[in-house]
Request: fold
Amino acid sequence: MTENIDEAGIRVLVEEELISAVVEKHRRFLEEYKKEFGELDSRLSQVEENVKNVKNFRIQMEERKEVLKEKRQQFYHQTEALLEKEIFPKLDPITANKLKEEFKRIKGQIEPEEEQRLKDSFMEKLRETIQAAGPGENVLSLVGSRMDEARNSNLEFKEIIKSEKQLAEDDGSKGEDISKGKSQHKWLSTKIKNHEEALNYWEKLKI
Reply:
């Protein structure tokens, strides 16, 4: 049988060579899996850290939204008080009521673009009214300034809403990445453990 193998050019590995080959195979796999595990572990840690930061950012943005809503209401309240004190009493009831209705629409829950359009229209009519009634340019300037501040608060509020929608989409993709990553992480951990045990076994036989 040995002669036939020799004639065929096939070399039979002795036990020591066979064990060395198995040991080398496990070492190679172990090195590859550990490298992949390390890279994945680092990537997962970064993603999870990002998710944590986004969660904290969301909390801050929720608090900021509440502040902005209150600021907008406050600015419009100040504007309304100014109008009621300095302008509306000097107008005829019909004109005053029309301006009050327009102002009511402006301070409602509307988009900043619509708010700007209505505010410009309101200020134009108010300017004409002031010129006729004579309350003064200073009052008009104060009204316009307060309304601009209110709109800026609304604009920032809407920008936060838009950012939150984008974050929600990003959260979905990150959630999938974490889920897949953890699955691969667990698989690699099992493979590393298996190869370490196998390597330990075969190295003992090699001695």
Confidence is low (pLDDT under 50) at residues 1-12.
